[in-house]
Amino acid sequence: MKSTHNYNVDKLLAAESTTKKQRVAIEALKKYKTVAETARKLGVRKRTLQAMLALANKRMLAAEIDTLMPDKQVLKGTSTLYRTNEDTGEKEEVLQWVKTRQSDEDNLEAIQHVTSELVKELEGKKNPVDVEVETNDELLTVHVSTDIHLGQYSWAAGAGFRGNKQAVAVTYSKKYGEVARNVASIREVEDTVS
Fold first, then answer.
1. Rounded to a whole number, what is the distance in angstroms from the first to the last CA of the chain?
2. How far apart are CA 31 and CA 9, in angstroms?
3. Alpha carbon separation from 66 to 40, 43, 62, 95, 99 (Å, rounded)
4. Do 100 and 77 meet the contact criterion of CB atoms below 8 Å apart?
5. DSSP assignment letter at 128
6. Residues 63/15, Cβ–Cβ less than 8 Å
7. Using CA atoms, how far apart are residues 114 and 117, in angstroms rounded to an integer?
8. Pairwise CA distance, residues 190 & 187, whole Å
9. Where does residue 32 rank: exposed (0-12), middle (13-18), buried (19+ CB within 10 A)?
10. Per-residue confidence of the chain (194 residues) as pLDDT tens digits?
């Protein structure tokens, strides 16, 4: 009987990260070839067996990745591409890959290097010169607020907000009204002082 799963059972059995319980399940999978038949023979639910095999596979991959990870890179996660087997209807793993990113320490090191190079370019340059500030009373100051998601219901989960979209819009209007009043009152104080 041909196996209908994508687990590399020999590799999983050889992995140091595989637990005794996982080994029993993997050896049964090697014998019975399908996840459904193996689960039935072991007396467990199919989803329980799938979760156990996925965890064993994930631990094995993590151990391999640690040895293969390039310097100054950290594991960001893994992605898996699945397809549905037309004969069995089971979801099968087709491909799995690892996502990495530059380490925080390496990013900080790069920022420090660039900053020190920029400072070297400024050495010996003249000090900044004071510039006369010109103002225009005909201009309006705009306070930009971005990405507030007034049309989404993400407020309840993300910010603990319990209400509706209209209440959110009213809250923002009030707050921006306060900002405008504060700016106007500061301006009045400046006018009386000068």
1. 93
2. 10
3. 35, 35, 6, 19, 13
4. no
5. P
6. yes
7. 5
8. 5
9. middle
10. 555 667 788 888 888 888 899 889 989 988 888 888 999 999 999 999 998 888 888 888 777 766 666 777 777 777 888 888 888 888 887 887 878 787 788 878 888 888 888 888 777 777 777 778 777 788 777 766 665 555 555 555 555 555 566 666 677 667 667 766 666 565 555 555 55
Q: Token match 């004969």: residue?
A: 87
Query: pTM for the complete prediction?
Result: 0.39
Query: For residue 84, what are the β-bridge partners?
Result: 91
SS (H, E, C) 154-186: HHHHHHCCCCCHHHHHHHHHHHHHHHHHHHHHH
Rounded Cα–Cα distance for residues 20 and 140 (Å): 71
Q: How many residues does the chain have?
A: 194
The residue whose two tokens read 């998601």 is 149
**What tokens were used for 69?**
């990870």
Instruction: Confirm if 152 and 164 have CB atoms less than 8 A apart.
Output: no
CA distance to 46, 67, 112, per residue, from 60 (Å): 21, 11, 37
Q: How far apart are CA 109 and CA 87, in angstroms?
A: 53
How far is 173 from 11, CA to CA, in rounded Å?
61
